[in-house]
Design brief:
The complex is a heterodimer of chains A (114) and B (111). With 114 residues, chain A is mostly beta strands. Helices cover 0% and strands 58% of the residues of chain A. Chain A has no helices and eleven strands. In chain A, the strands form two sheets. In chain A, strands 2, 4, 5, 6, 9, 10 and 11 form a seven-stranded mixed beta sheet that branches. In chain A, strands 1-3-8-7 form a four-stranded antiparallel beta sheet, with no helix packed on it. In chain A, a hairpin with a 2-residue loop joins strand 7 (65-70) and strand 8. With 111 residues, chain B is mostly beta strands. In chain B, the strands form three sheets. In chain B, strands 2, 5, 6, 9, 10 and 11 form a six-stranded mixed beta sheet that branches. In chain B, strand 5 (31-38) and strand 6 (45-49) form a beta hairpin. Chain B is globular. The chains are: A mainly beta (114), B mainly beta (111). Chains A and B meet through strand 5 and strand 10 of A and strand 5, strand 6, strand 9 and strand 10 of B.
Chain lengths: 114, 111
């Protein structure tokens, strides 16, 4: 069966420090991968998506970047964190091919920037 | 542009009462609509999709293109229905799922 792992679960970082959140998927090949940010009162905002290795699309201009070095690995990064980067980040995957609308989400990573 | 609106941040009902979680959308084409749910300490997961026309855990949702709505309904709420509910929209058959989510509605069912 397919599983998705995301870490770290919680992270407290000072302003200006770097960030790396990692997400891996097991049990499937060539998944579509996503990074969402969940903020209270603002719902789920799609940050990045990827349909293959090295293929990253950014949805909103921001201080973050994403990379997909391997088929089932998706990384969210920042060189210098801002206070506004605080939030709950969710990684998700979906199967390629005909769309079913089903995204499978990780457990999330809560980032607090101080 | 795609947009999903969930006007209620919180919906509080008593056990056994009917529930309707509102969702309105804007999309210049034929959308696919979904409801996702997040129970306490669990992952966000798909509840139902409009193309399946299914009832999941007693919940149903009908796509009303005239009113651009996709409200989630259940005739008799249960305490275990308490959760965060998100309405989501995507373009038709894009080959990959780029879902736009609403801001969510927290459903609280009291005994």
């Amino acid at each position: 069966s397919q599983t998705i792992h995301q870490w770290p679960a919680t992270l407290v970082q000072p302003v200006g420090s770097p960030l790396s959140l990692e997400c891996t998927v097991e049990g499937t090949s060539n998944p579509n991968l996503y990074w969402y940010r969940q903020a209270a009162g603002r719902g789920l905002q799609l940050l990045f998506y990827s349909v293959g290795i090295g293929q990253i699309s950014s949805e909103v201009p921001q201080n973050l970047s994403a990379s997909r070095p391997q088929d089932r690995q998706f990384i969210l990064s920042s060189k210098k964190l801002l206070l506004s980067d605080s939030g709950f980040y969710l990684c998700a995957w979906s199967a390629t091919g005909y769309s079913t609308g089903e995204l499978f989400f990780g457990e999330g990573s809560r980032l607090t920037v101080l | 542009a795609q947009r999903v609106t969930q006007p209620e941040k919180l919906l509080s009902v008593f056990k056994g009462a009917p529930v309707e979680l509102k969702c309105n959308y804007s999309y210049s084409g034929s959308p696919e609509l979904f409801w996702y749910v997040q129970y306490s300490r669990q992952r966000l997961q798909l509840l139902l999709r409009h193309i399946s026309r299914e009832s999941i855990k007693g919940f149903t949702a009908d796509l009303n293109k005239g009113e651009t709505s996709f409200h989630l309904k259940k005739p008799f709420a249960q305490e275990e229905d308490s959760a965060m509910y998100y309405c989501a929209l995507s373009g038709v058959n894009t080959g990959f799922q780029k879902l736009v989510f609403g801001t969510g509605t927290r459903l609280l069912v009291s005994p």
